[in-house]
Amino acid sequence: MKDTDIKRLLYTHLLCIFSIILSICIPSFFLENFSILETHLTWLCICSVFVTAVNLVLYLIVKPNASSKRSSISYKVTRFLKCCIYFLMSCFFFHVIFVLYGAPLIELVLETFLFAVILSTFTTVPCLCLLGPNIKAWLRVFSRNGVTSIWENSLQITTISSFIGTWLGAFPIPLDWERPWQVWPISCTLGATFGYVAGLVISPLWIYWNRKQLTYKNN
Amino acid sequence: MRLGSGAFAACCVVIEVLGVALFLRGFFPAPVRSSSRAEQRAEPAAPEPSAGASSNWTKLPPPLFKKVVIMLIDGLRDDFVFGSKGVKFMPYTTYLVEKGASHSFVAEAKLPTVTMPRIKALMTGSLPGFIDVVRNLNSPELLEDNVITQAKAAGKRIIFYGDETWVKLFPKHFVEYDGTTSFFVSDYTEVDDNVTRHLDKVLKRGDWDMLILHYLGLDHIGHVSGPSSPLIGHKLREMDSILMKIHTSLLSEERETLVPNLLVLCGDHGMSETGGHGASSMEELNTALILISSAFERKPGDIRRPKHVQQTDLAATLAIGLGLPIPGNSVGSLLFPTVEGRPVREQLRFLHLNAVQLSKLLQENVPSYEKEPGFEQFKMSERLHGNWIRLYLEENNSEVLFNLGAKVRRQYLDALRTLSLSLSRQVAQYDIYSMLVGTVVVLEVLSLLLLSIPEALSNKAELEVPLWSPVFSLLFYLTLLVLSALHVIVCTSAESSCYFCGLSWLTAGGVMVLVSALLCAVVSALAKTFGDGKFLSKNPAHPKPRWSELDVLILLGTMGHVLSLGASSFIEEEHQTWYFLINTLCLALCHEIYRNCLLRDDSEPQQCPHVEEEFIRTAAALQDRSTGCDTLEPHGVSRSLTSLDTLRGYEKWMVLASPWVILTCCRLLRSLNQTGVQWAHRPDLGHWLTSSDHKAELSVLTALSLIVIFALVQRKCSLTSKVALALGLLGVYCYRAAIGNVLFPWQRDSKDISKGVIEARFVHVFVLGILFTGTKDLLKSQVIATDVTIKTVGLWEIYSGLVLLAALLFRPHNLPVLVFSLLIQTIMTKFIWKPLRHDAAEITIMHYWFGQAFFYFQGNSNNIATVDISAGFVGLDTYIEVPAVFLTAFATFAGPVLWASHLVSFLSSETSSGSALSHACFCYALICSFPVSAYIILVTSLRYHLFIWSVFSPKLLYEGMHILITAAICVFFTAMDQTNTKS
């Protein structure tokens, strides 16, 4: 593990944060009366698209694990399709979990689903980019002492912090402050976004501080 | 003395209950009282003030009305009369309000909006304390000065029909009465017919002066189907026709006697949007109040919005109207429009009487009453009044007299308003000293529990309790001395009354000995911990065991819940916290299971064996290596892997699916009862099931639930109790059919509804039988001392007896809660706790969490209104205090109690180690007493919060009850543990 790796990690993460900021700023030039709270669903879509695009581009440029030997077109296509299916499945999975947590079953379905989409964007998309459609690898990364590189380590941190952000985001809902952002699912999506950004910021720093202690199996 | 940690914890919780009781006594202040009791009030009425020339009017003014009829409709909120519903369903009342000789008001009730305190407020004019809610059930005789007692003393003949509460409040006051009981909420026609049937007869007779009618039907409809139900309209129309009947009969009588009568239509409290009451929403506080009399001016076309007044104002008005002295504790002011038609001298006289009474009450309750603005205003208007009287007696210029009279009247009204306001704000202060003593006891117990964690959760599960050494230590005597000195100083200098000072010296001394002994114990435990800490730091041989994710979650969840109690919204919506926590718990369990199952193949011996030690046990493990030898469970990850390895294919799939099944169950239960405040009005399955259109569905569901309950519970029972259980469950269905909740398939129309006493008693017999069999088995296991299975069976039988009792007491639509609770317990036992081999502490805390969640799944909330008091009357003919209180408490806390008893039977059957039960008892005590102690401190610091009465106080009562039940559970645990160690 070298410092250059950490630097690359930091730059990619900064780009991701930048993409989120762009998703807030750019639409207001094109769309009238765009704001995060009032046209929340539009923002969710735009943010999700931006973050996905940036993640894909970064993955193609940086190639953190340049491993796969078979690189025929058909293999890549099936892999890509598999990723898409996984993404959709994770959206539905999150949707189900939100309903289990008490989200309304029939009303506000679109809101809940878009919330699931944005959470999948923050968590599943980086996983798919880095690990591919391989559940075992995912489980390995998310269990204790399972990470094998700084990329996986940062993935672990950002994903967990997005989840924690979402989880904490549900707390203000019962409070009687009557603010516009307490409406389902705005506080949760904002929580997820803050968690994701926090994860992006924290993970390079954390890895940098702990670079002496971190030893990975493969390198 | 060495004590098992279970016994130690039980003792601690019992002491804590004492502390909490003391705190509660200090926290709920006694209401504003006049020092003179009702009997002693023979003092003459205040004479008219006079300046110089003496006035000859010293007697009470004569009554304004000959007869008074009070028609009290339970739950009559203001918009039922003044809103669109009133226009639609109460045409006669609307006519009277708009065009007739009447005065209409919106009377604002104070908390708690429950019937008995409201009746008291209406009749005494005082503000009953919050604690009156608790006494609501066995309303004792009202000893305070009130209108009814005064009327009786004045020789008025009073007749009463309606809610029994009145008969209990005013025994021997009525020459004729017929009480109806208010506990069969599902009946809303007969309660009112029982009142109305007397009406024709009574109205024809002329031998009474006061008639009180209390109609319960409207409130019952509200409880069953809410304020927007079509039944409300029917009921209002019925009430309207009754009002018309009374009014016409009074009018026809007036034509003969030429003396005006008074008809009062009022509500005691309102009705929330869900149909309950007890809290402080506007709908619950605002009630209609209409005074109708031919003495009032007609005001055609004068449609104003009714004025807002206080409910307590009625007592003073009634007293004036009947020519009685105003009740001494009344904080209300006269409703001036009622005397507007009288001559000015009388008007001023009435106002003066009221002001004198209020200022006297102020003098008795406020030390610095002379500085109160109301008192100054009163003195000034009294002086002016005297001047007016002098002018009047001198028969001065009429215009000057009139102008001065108007000024005096205005002054008096201002003074009355200010006095009344400052009195109702002056609900007596908190008894800080008692609160402090209670808090100190609770905190000392909590710190003792916290400090003894390492020892109590060690493998031996025993700890040294220094019982005698503190008694001889210097610290003990010093503390005792200081405390007694403090006690003397506080009690001799206290201005307001103090409960703890009122105790006898022996009791107070006992409490002080307890406080100082606990202090010594805490200090010695602290010293021991620090000594051990030094010892430990010397040999850092043991690696620090890491906490698993589950432990972190449990710790954070507990802390988070305690912190959330500081916000009123989180208390109102506490169910959301628990649902959220158990969902997260299930997902964490799911993660653990999947990791263990799926990663088995490629998990090489891991670098860091992560020890699945409960967070509390970490310290224990550190300390107890010397006694070492973890007999109860092997260490490391390997153990959970091996246990999962042995599972066959089908079971493995069940293990994988179980968290999702549990999550689905919880989601279904969540939509069964909407509770809390913000989302309580949402439609839920419970309301859908209980509506009368869906009786067939409810019957099928009930039958199905009972069958599933039998299937789930009977597995581990002996044959006798199996039969008893089956018959008992059958009896439950018969009971529900008898009270009209469900139907038999052969029964087409619902026949007449009975109380179902026989059926309920039938079930009670089987409950007692099963409990008795269980106890017998437990005793046998103690005597024979060889067979562990007998004990397991016995515990399970006690558990199933409780399940049967809960099935009987639950609301009809709540049987699925019981079913899902049993289902989740079975799934957790089979597929999660056994294969993953959690330790006793973790299992205890999970049980506690689920118990709390099920408390809310039942439809409870932190609001008094959701307590199902009808459960206290199952199988009883009349109200008998002890069983009624016991049954209500059990029905309310059925969730936590059932989970706790499942915990006992699970631990004693599954774990081989002897210390599991005492560990569990200790953890249970700790985790229950932690929120209580934190909440006591929170409430003390928030005691001037706006929502202290509506949100924090009910929660405090719930917490007090919870710690009491926890104490009972811990004692039961310890008893089981004792039999265990003996065998």
UniProtKB/TrEMBL annotation, chain A:
Ranges annotated as spanning the membrane: 9-29, 41-62, 83-106, 112-132, 153-171, 183-209
BP term (GO), one: GPI anchor biosynthetic process
Listed InterPro entries: GPI_biosynthesis_protein_Pig-F
Superkingdom of origin: Eukaryota
Membrane-related topology note: Multi-pass membrane protein
Record flagged with keyword Iron-sulfur: no
Keyword Membrane: yes
Keywords (A to Z) from UniProt: Endoplasmic reticulum, GPI-anchor biosynthesis, Membrane, Transmembrane, Transmembrane helix
GO CC annotation, single: endoplasmic reticulum membrane
Main location: endoplasmic reticulum
Pathway assigned in UniProt: Glycolipid biosynthesis; glycosylphosphatidylinositol-anchor biosynthesis
Subcellular locations according to the entry: Endoplasmic reticulum membrane
Pfam families (UniProt xref): PIG-F
Protein name: Phosphatidylinositol glycan anchor biosynthesis class F
The species this protein was found in: Canis lupus dingo
From TrEMBL, chain B:
Domain GPI ethanolamine phosphate transferase 2 C-terminal intervals: 650-959
Protein name (database record): Phosphatidylinositol glycan anchor biosynthesis class G
Residues in coiled coil: none
Keyword Transmembrane helix among UniProt keywords: yes
InterPro entries according to UniProt: Alkaline_phosphatase_core_sf, Phosphodiest/P_Trfase, PIG-G_N, PIGG/GPI7, PIGG/GPI7_C
TM helices/strands, residue ranges: 7-28, 432-453, 465-490, 502-531, 696-713, 725-744, 793-810, 884-909, 921-944, 956-976
Gene: PIGG
Listed CDD domains: GPI_EPT_2
Family: Belongs to the PIGG/PIGN/PIGO family. PIGG subfamily.
Biological or metabolic pathway of the protein: Glycolipid biosynthesis; glycosylphosphatidylinositol-anchor biosynthesis
